[in-house]
Amino acid sequence: MADLRNNFVGIKSPNPFWLASAPPTDKEYNVERAFKAGWGGVVWKTLGEAGPPVVNVNGPRYGAIWAGDRRLMGFNNIELITDRDLQRNLREIKAVKMRWPDRAVVASIMVPCDEDSWKAILPLVEETGADGIELNFGCPHGMSERGMGAAVGQVPEYVEMVVRWCKHYSRMPVITKLTPNVTDIRRPARAAKNGGTDAVSLINTINSITNVDLDLMAPMPTIDGKGTHGGYCGPAAKPIALHMVAEIARDRETLGLPISGIGGITTWRDAAEFMALGSGNVQVCTAAMVYGFKIVEEMISGLSNWMDEKGYKTLDDFVGKASRNVTDWQFLNLEYITKARIDQDLCIKCGRCHIACEDTSHQAITKEKNGVRYFEVMDNECVGCNLCVNVCPVEDCITMVELAPGMIDERTGRVVTGKYANWTTHPNNPMRKDAVEPAE
Amino acid sequence: MGDGILKDGIAAGRLAENQYVSNFADLHPPFVQHEAFVEADRCYFCYDAPCQAACPTSIDIPLFIREILTDNPLGAAETIFEQNILGGMCARVCPTEQLCEEACVREAAEGKPVKIGMLQRYATDAAMDAGVQFFTRGAETGKHVAIVGAGPAGLACAHRLSMHGHSVTIFDARPKAGGLNEYGIAFYKTPGGFAQAEVDYVTAIGGIDIETGKALGRDFTLADLTAKYDAVFLGMGLGGVNALRAEGEDADGVDNAIDFIATLRQASDLSTLPIGRRVVVIGGGMTAVDAAVQSKLLGAEEVTMVYRRGREQMNASGFEQDLAAAKGVNIRLWLAPKRVMTAGGKVTGIELSYMALDAGGALKPTGETTTIACDQVFKAIGQTLASDGDGVTLAGGKIEVDDEGHTSMPKVWAGGDCATGGDDLTVTAVAEGRDAAESINRFLSGK
What we know:
The complex is a heterodimer.
Chain A: E1 6-8, E2 11-13, E3 17-19, H1 28-37, E4 41-47, E5 62-67, E6 71-77, H2 86-99, E7 104-109, H3 115-126, E8 132-136, H4 150-153, H5 156-169, E9 174-177, H6 186-195, E10 199-202, E11 206-208, E12 211-213, E13 218-220, E14 230-233, H7 238-250, E15 259-262, H8 268-276, E16 279-284, H9 286-291, H10 295-310, E17 338-342, H11 352-360, E18 368-369, E19 372-373, H12 387-391, E20 398-402, E21 408-409, E22 414-415
Parallel strand pairs in A: 3-4, 3-16, 4-7, 7-8, 8-9, 9-10, 10-15, 15-16
Antiparallel strand pairs in A: 1-2, 5-6, 6-14, 11-14, 12-13, 17-20, 18-19, 21-22
Chain B: E1 10-11, H1 17-23, H2 33-41, H3 50-54, H4 61-69, H5 73-83, H6 87-93, H7 100-103, H8 105-110, H9 116-130, E2 144-148, H10 152-163, E3 167-172, H11 180-183, H12 194-203, E4 208-212, H13 222-228, E5 231-234, E6 240-241, E7 254-256, H14 257-266, E8 275-276, E9 278-282, H15 286-297, E10 302-306, H16 318-326, E11 330-332, E12 335-343, E13 346-357, E14 363-373, E15 376-379, E16 383-384, E17 394-395, E18 398-399, E19 412-414, H17 426-444
Helix pairs in contact in B: 2-4, 2-9, 4-5, 4-9, 5-9, 6-9, 10-17, 14-15, 15-16
């Protein structure tokens, strides 16, 4: 039985599944339910400074895109940080942490970008007994217009400055939450590290307009005929988040910096993927908002069974195992040659592989044989692109098969060498240099 | 279905008043929008789709399903009607499990094809309910075509001729247009006056006159039509009924299944329709199933379908056979009628011969017999051309036509059940009518 216990920058939780700072963690009531359901930890919905709390819109604050049968694929929100009084939130954090000492309770914070504001709130949070703080440098809407959230996260110098204040005025572990709305995620991550952060968490939500109401001619969600960009998340955001996690995990300057992975995590497999790319744990929001807290049962069971199957006894056994295989394009092996293979027993003859290849790619799949509907890969045209695999509705019907050394690639007429050779040494590369191996 | 009220012999009012409505309600309630979206999402949008190839009218099925999925039901309807102007009725009566849905790749993948018929109904209902027309009458050519029979073949032919600008007059022997759609299909497949609504929808293009109560051979001859019109299309179906060739078939209580179905369809009050307490239907096709099931739905206590061969040879589809069984019809195979038993001129039962294939594969009585007690016998063993062809060449009892529907006479085309070829389905009749119209148009425009 795999050990799912998680130790993230000294914050312990019975499993690596935390709820991200968001509506599900805004109140004692919700967090209590989450812990009863089995969540390992929560990052409390972002606290603001003392005084009159922020206000939210009173119309729709969420938007979504769907796949078939209204399966929610992408989600967006224009909600701000907690709109409840600071003192009340602090009292509730304290009460919850006392009742659930084995669970992680981290407080997310966002106050104006001046030293006094941070200096004022940090002791109040520390007094609750919270396990740590997460700096909300990511919220892309509303608060950013006021110089907070993403407005800070987009300026590495500000990130470093605020992290430094937090480390100076608090003993709590600091997790810096990053906005993806930047051109290079490594810059704010490096800045956070330079400021002394204990970890980064990412991604926060992505600037987005999910849809347009074609009757009102207004973006959705629509407030009295107008809309604004919101923060995008959910399953459709996962690939963007995975890339950013991987970039930080393999960056020489941030190597070893703990990462809490966030972005569209819906199942145990999503979580395992984030962790394989270097996340010490994961945070979930959208999936809980769509299906409720019960999903954590599937995540715990699925991760545990997969770890057992693979022989991983603890989370550390596989965290970061895939990040070493993330590299630059220039280091990909150009001598690695695959061809698509269609399993005729599994093929249902929908023809999608043929038309995708014929219309949009390499004209490498037949449509008939002896006058009968028949889909087969022509090796002399197939570049091994994987498009047919992706469009095939039958799992494992089409697979990419590697050509073994000594075989001839019928497309190029060349013998497969079985050696490693990348673009850096390729004769077509005007900038070619002597062989360079990818960094491990 | 409820319990019948036990009355001996052939009697009306076997059910409680309110039961007729539920018994004869829509067999498949239409999809609501969400159901349509979920089902449409199952379509893989196949390349050169097998479903389309399996459709006798070649409807671009993946395209119309994609149009439904993107909340464009009118676009979907136009895609359907371009190929099949009677797409609404075909959505209801096509044996889809033998056509498009059998070919659906999801049938191969998981045994659950996309419900193409239901989706087609969703789209065509949307357009017809909104009264949206997609086609306009072509510029007047001054040519005038006579059509015999206002059924699916005749209507499809007329609509396409009107699109090309020709004027059309349709003659039909019955009081109403629609042919088998109006008179020959089970009530629960097309409730709510759909057949007449579809006639109105098709003829709304203009240039089509329908003269009802006028029968070929009775009120006019084919020679009259060829003399007066620029071209003629024969689509009058099969008006005759095959005889049982069994002793006693003239007895009171032996009726044609198609007449029973027609009477039922035209009835304003189903509780006034008499039906036997015990009914035997002879035949193995769709008409036999329609008659048997509706007998049961009218409150008959025992209904038995008798077919002289095995289940595999039945013309009724597997779905139809299952429907009959589900409604309580007992299907008996390898039995042929030998003698209708009577008392006082009324049916009391039927004596049946057991049948088997001999060594040469010919169907022969085995010599054994059995009897089924009954009050009523419906004959559903096939229909025949009511006329001798009136001058056109026949083949196998039907009007012989070429690939374009052209008969042996230069100005005369034919299609639907009365002509050779096709499967005697509504959808093949539509295809034949439409294609004959194209051929007629080429003829009239000298191409």
